[in-house]
Amino acid sequence: MKLAIAVAVFFFSRLALVHGATDTKHYIVFMGDHSYPNSESVKLANHEMLASVMGSIDGAQQAVVYHYTRSFRGFSAMLTPVHAQQLAERESVVSVFESKMNHAHTTHSWDFLGVNSIHQYNHLPLESKSDVIIGVIDSGVWPESMSFNDTGLGPIPKRFKGKCVIGEEFSLANCNRKLIGARFYYKGFEKDKGPLKTISSDFLKSARDTEGHGSHTASTVAGSAVANASYLGMAKGTARGGAPSARLAIYKALWSNRGSDADLFKAFDDAISDGVDIISISIGSSPQKNFLADSLSIGSLRAFMEGILVSASAGNAGKPYTASNVAPWILTVAASSVDREFNANVYLGNSKILKVTLQSLVKEGSPLALEMVVGIREDVNNFPTSTIHDSCGTHPMGYSLSPLKMKRSYGVINASAAAAPGVSSKAASFCQNSTLDPTLIKGKIVVCYNVDGSSESFFVKQAGAVGIIVVRPLAEGIDFNLQIPGTLIERKEAEELKAYLEKQRNPIAKISLTMTALNTKRAPRMATFSSMGPNIITPDIIKPDITAPGVNILAAWPPSTAVDTKEDFDYNIISGTSMACPHASGIAGIIKSYHPSWNPSIIKSAMMTTATVLDNTGGPILKDPNDSPATPFDYGSGHVNPSAALDPGLVYDFDSEDIIDYLCGTGATPKQLESFLGVAVTCKYPPTPAYNLNYPSIGVANLLRSVSVLRTVTYYGKGPTVYISNVEQPKGVKVVITPPKLKFGNYGEKMSFKVDIMPSKNHSGNIEFVFGALTWDNGIHRVRSPIMLNLI
Questions:
Q1: What is the pLDDT of residues 714-732, one digit of tens each?
Q2: Active site residue 67
Q3: Which of 155, 462, 634, 776 is most buried (CB neighbours < 10 A)?
Q4: For 752-761, how does the pLDDT look when each residue is reduced to its tens digit (9 = 90+)?
């Protein structure tokens, strides 16, 4: 998308007028910073402003849904497009935009990241006191889960200004020294979708989580250590969050994995004012909205200005140009696997074995059929620092794993050969409702082709089948919900199976239990579902920023009963960038506990520049489904490396003034920014290019001729040292660093350098993306920044 187009739609559009003058919609009116003495005075001013276009105070009061009063000024209200436009033209208004729905981007993983070793090697035990507060904006929390027990924690930090808000099935007693705050927001959702109880009788007007997503993410980021956690008795191990001694403040704004802008905006307003240190939010819009018309982007910018890092999921669309939460002040997290695979083999009647590996095939909310799974191991599996570095599904309540066992071999039939009367063989091959003849499949294993991955096993079970083999299209992700023994195979195995079925008159097979293999190669690898760059708002800023474990993650869940075995469980395994985000948030919390004075951009830089682009074989990180090398559009700077991030050597720091220059360059006016920030703003002319934001990665879109990119690093080390630059040259480009060496004497010293980027004169003229990297190395620290160039 051209920058001019992005700027043209950056703020409220007059096109809304086509909807008519009298139809009301839910709009957010954002006015930025304010100097009012209290919330009541903000509400009064909001009513007066709204009355000036609506004609009366009474009408204004009835129209308002939310007042935003604590961290910034604004309100949401039911308005006509005409009224919305009139408000957008006020000088004090930064932006007016319609409240839209956002979606959730719905453990061995911490051992894979080496978090145990961080605490051991730095003499900080897991149970040590911590005053770091992590706010989680999601679907709430199940407070009775042992992941949220407060054993060993000290008093609630006095600086915390939040509340434990009572509601349905949630009392003050549900908060403790771990869950120190709990709020909930539903008014925006109800305005957009109707009363909660008419949508689901399970909805509770409280912070209690009845869906699971919020409990899962909260326990992943900062859950207390829980011994013998498992799913249905499987995967036994110690479940824990990344920062188990951190405190949690819960902001419930999701209902059925959806949240309105108005509710999310209020959650940000409260979280910032409550005094959290990190905000973890596994939610996003698709496509990405322009920054000042997006509640998450605005809320996270206000958080950034208050010294709060916002970690957000990149999304589960799995295609180029789909990454969400791409503002440069947000840590945008992609999803990748850990060193664990699930093997469910198919034993054919001719003694051949189809070996099947299920590693990162699952979207969020997509259960796997497993026998032995996924517990977090007690041993430490740490990457050596020298070599390492949703488009979402709704989760069917009740099960994520199926411990069903196939005791003997059964006949096998292609679904296409078992079509019900009047159904074509092609239609039958997808195993959808009423497409199969029960008399032909009863007591057999059925081979189905995947459509959505979530219904085949249900329908074949209903028709009398005893097992299912799902053929997965090579380029598709899959929801894999099994209610009978089964497995999933790729095209290679499908060809072998097809040949066997064609040759044998009475083919038989047995599906093995799904077994877990640990310490597998190659890992990490990028998940099929993880959303990818380029950044559709500002292509010069590489997104995602980083990748973290998001495949088959075990974490806390509301008490549920498995549909297949009727067994109860309170830990569950799901996948998605929703699961990767809290891993990154937990690591940010660890860093904040070690370095309390570090601001969001420093924490972000530390995580990005120490990330690895190598897997546990020493080769490049690959991506599913076809094992091609991943690029910065997949993983940003690479796979997060917590140990190295605690001591990055050099950091790229940027502050609110840098963000002002960046926003000026994207089309924001001084008036809008003055209202936003509450200070006088002068935009530079010519504007600062986005590629000159002091970001930890380097990107230049639309590279037609030579450009010079400027960066400044700050030394966070001890004693004098010299860093030497090394460039992995992008194809068709020459990159020169000036100066090539940086000499530092003291902690906190800053030095600037220039990156001259010169396209080859022999460039073909075809538009293409090329990648490289700049690494500063002093023999102890390697500070790496990916380079992305769009040659035109």
A1: 999 999 999 999 999 999 9
A2: no
A3: 634
A4: 999 999 998 7
